[in-house]
């Protein structure tokens, strides 16, 4: 593995600030802070640095993706409900051409039909869905592995 640090942007979309109290039978009891702490621990092991942003606003997420052009080499994103609606987030990822892994706590493919479509998946390297907080950790590992291989 290269000694250089991988700079990665982690984006959490709308309502994910409520994790731990929101629909716990679907999303579990882990808070967003706890998920972020685990990601920071894993980032050290993977020799990566993380900038982590949660927003309930599409434009804030898009601005962070645009800014990643000058700062980051990869994007780990849980777009929340914007997964199923946001052509604008998809276009932002396509526009900056940042290698992206999409993650979801729940398995979106076994839920309501409106969750089966992801506008993000076609511009992502891959998608990890259904493993609870571990989806984020698996996603970070997958992204770091991809980025190391393309160095
Ligand atoms: C989610 C799945 C989405 O359908 C939903 O709108 C969310 C969370 C997940 O992590 O399972 O807000 O992205």
Can you give a write-up of this model?
- With 151 residues, the chain is of the alpha/beta class.
- It has one domain (7-150): Rossmann fold, CATH 3.40.50.
- 38% of the residues lie in helices and 19% in strands.
- Residues 15, 78, 80-81, 83, 104-106, 108, 115 line the site of 1,3,4-trihydroxy-5-OXO-cyclohexanecarboxylic acid.
- 1,3,4-trihydroxy-5-OXO-cyclohexanecarboxylic acid is lined by residues 15, 78, 80-81, 83, 104-106, 108, 115.
Which characteristics define this entry?
151 residues; alpha/beta; Rossmann fold; five-stranded parallel β-sheet; binds 1,3,4-trihydroxy-5-OXO-cyclohexanecarboxylic acid
Looking at the structure, what is the overall shape? Answer: globular
**Strand portion, in percent?**
15-25%
The CATH class is identified as Alpha Beta
* CATH architectural arrangement: 3-Layer(aba) Sandwich
The value of Rg in angstroms is 14 Å
How widely separated are the two ends? 10 Å
Structural class: alpha/beta
Number of helices: 5
* Count of discrete structural domains: 1
Low-confidence stretches: none
CATH superfamily grouping: Dehydroquinase, class II
What binds here, in terms of ligands, is: 1,3,4-trihydroxy-5-OXO-cyclohexanecarboxylic acid
In the sheet with the most strands, the strands line up as: 2-1-3-4-5
Fraction of residues in H or I helices: 25-40%
Largest sheet: 5 strands, parallel
Number of strands: 5
Tell me the series of helices and strands, N- to C-terminal: EHHEHEHEEH
Mean pLDDT, all residues: 97
